[in-house]
Amino acid sequence: MGCSERLAEPGAQPRPSLRRLEDVGPCRAVYIFAKKNGIPFEMRTVELLKGQHLSQKFLQVNSLQRLPTLQDGDFVLTESVAILIFLSAKYRTADHWYPADLQARAHIHEYLGWHADCIRGTFGVPLWTQVIMPLTGTQVPEEKVRRNRTAMDQALQQLEDKFLGNRAFLTSQQVTLADLMALEELVQPVAVGCDVFEGRPRLAAWRERVETFLGAGLCQEAHGPILNILERAASKTFLVTLPEAYPFVLRRISRIP
């Protein structure tokens, strides 16, 4: 939902091109990972609610119309997890992100599989119901909203008990790709007044540890747009939703349980 396109500096060496939507967790995760690890890239922002992902120019890069999208020469990759793993291998990032140890890596895969089912779609719902859907004049029945909050509470409990436990971070004692993916999804409901960390001191302490590791400056840069989203929406400077994007919005609404 961003509104800018940042290009590589003049004279810079060729670098991977990263297309992202700044208000969506998977895109922020890839962006933070690249910045934290000093990975060079050319970043472009794609506005889904203006239908930019439907343009012929974007379709030539990514026929799946999904974000984030990584283009490295003729090589194109979608899905945030695949992009993170690719970047960690290509740029030989610190082992703690995606350990060489098979069992440690399997635990990360276990979390990421669960994340896709229980975190990704569920924790994005408050953003959709409070910010995006009003732009199109649509509403979600209150019953769905309550049911989704119950699903969020259940997932948070499983996140604490199964994946965090008594460790410093999810799956291990060091930050991994699992922590980065989880943090970016849990920040979204906080931005619209649904503080998922309230009353959960273990999870709140985990968030503080991850953000301390990433650094205050990088977190502020990456989280600023999403944490200010209600102000942006209220000021009427947030988005202009075009009819071409309505089918995308309606499909997303229909997937809310």
Short recap of the structure:
The chain has 257 residues and is α+β, with helices and mostly antiparallel strands. The protein has helices spanning 25-36, 56-61, 80-90, 102-118, 120-123, 125-135, 142-164, 177-191, 201-214, 216-227, 229-234, 246-254; strands at 17-20, 42-45, 69-72, 75-78.
Would you mind describing this structure in some detail?
The protein is an alpha+beta fold and 257 residues long. The chain is 54% helix and 6% strand. A four-stranded mixed β-sheet has the order 2-1-3-4, covered by helices on one side. The longest helix is centred in the middle third of the chain and has 23 residues, at 142-164. It starts with 16 loop residues before the first strand and ends with a helix.
| Rg (C-alpha, Å) | 18 Å
- Major sheet details: 4 strands, mixed
Q: What's the total count of β strands?
A: 4
Whole-Å distance between the termini? 24 Å
Q: How much of the sequence is in beta strands? A: 5-15%
The helix/strand series, from N terminus to C terminus, equals EHEHEEHHHHHHHHHH
Number of helices: 12
**Shape descriptor:** globular
The chain-level structural class is alpha+beta
Numbering strands along the chain, what is their spatial order in the largest sheet? 2-1-3-4
List segments where confidence is low: pLDDT < 50 over at least 5 consecutive residues: 1-14
